[in-house]
Structure formats: C-alpha cells, structure tokens
Amino acid sequence: MTEVKRYYFEDGNTVRVTSEPLPSREERELAEKKRRREARRKKERRKKAAMAQSRLHTLMLCSVAGIACLFFMSYVYLQAETQNTMGSIASLESEISSLKADNAAEQNRISASENLSQVKDVAQNQLGMVYAGNGQIVYYTVEESDYMTQYRDVN
User: Where does residue 37 rank: exposed (0-12), middle (13-18), buried (19+ CB within 10 A)?
Assistant: First the structure.
C-alpha cells in the first residue's frame, strides 16, 4: 500500500484537493540525512562565525583595557609630578621667606648702625667740610624755558 499525502490549496474562491504519493522510505531517510547534514553544516558555520566574532570581541576588549591602563598610568604619573612640583614650590617659598627675613634683619642692622650725628662729626672734623654760607648760595630764576645753559663758571 502506498502512502498518499494530500495537499489542500486555494485557487480563487474554491478549495482544491490534490493527492500525490509519498516518497519511499529510503528516499525519506535519505532526505532526512541530507536535512540533518545541512543543519549540522549551518550549525558549524554559525559556531565558526560566533568564534570569529568572539575573537574580535576579545581583541577589542583587550585593546580597550590596554588603553584604559595607559590612561590610568599616565594619570598617576601626572599626579606624582604635580606632588613633586608642589613640594619644590613649597621649599622655594620657604627659602624665599627665609631670605626675606635675613634681608630685613640686615636692613635693621644697617639702619641701627647709621648715626647721623657721627657722620656730621666726621665730615666736619676729619674732612673739613662746613655748611654753606649766605654768600655762597646762588639762586637762578627761569622765566619761560624749562632748562638753563651755563656758559661760564659761577663765582
């Protein structure tokens, strides 16, 4: 007895029935093997594509991780450089304040050592200097010019 498979299809507004015999058992088994083989091949192709995509994904993740590591290492390096620079600046500021304090102390020492009466005494007694008298002071008046030209010695 042959197996028959019925197909129903619509043709316009009527439904038609066609009958055609089923393929033999060997043909069906052969078709099933072929279908399984094709399914296995598709599965292997999908697996290979997934593996290639996985490799690409892994490579991208590694490169991103490497870039992130470089970024963080440079950040830590810059932080260390900033700390070193801040330390140098602090030591220089300390040195400047020390030098300013030394300078102020030296200025006070010089100011304290100046004695104007002693300078006047040395100038008058040892060097022979005297105050200018009334006859030695000469006054000049300039009317319109802002400078004066001297042509001979003034006595």
Answer: exposed
Using a pLDDT cut of 70, give the percent of the chain over it: 81
The number of residues in the chain equals 155
Q: Is the CA virtual torsion 114, 116, 121, 122 positive or negative?
A: positive
Q: Is 142 left (phi over 0), alpha (psi -120 to 50) or beta?
A: beta
**2-56 confidence digits (pLDDT tens):** 566 666 666 666 666 666 666 778 888 899 999 999 999 999 999 888 888 888 8
Is residue 17 within 8 A of residue 4, CB to CB? The reply is no
Give Cβ neighbours of residue 60 (< 8 Å, ≥ 6 apart): none
CA dist 13 to 10, 121, 141, 143, Å?
7, 143, 134, 131
Taking the C-alpha atoms of 83, 88, 94 and 96 in order, what is their torsion angle to the nearest 10 degrees? -140
Q: Any alpha helices (H) in the chain, and if so which ranges?
A: 25-113, 116-121
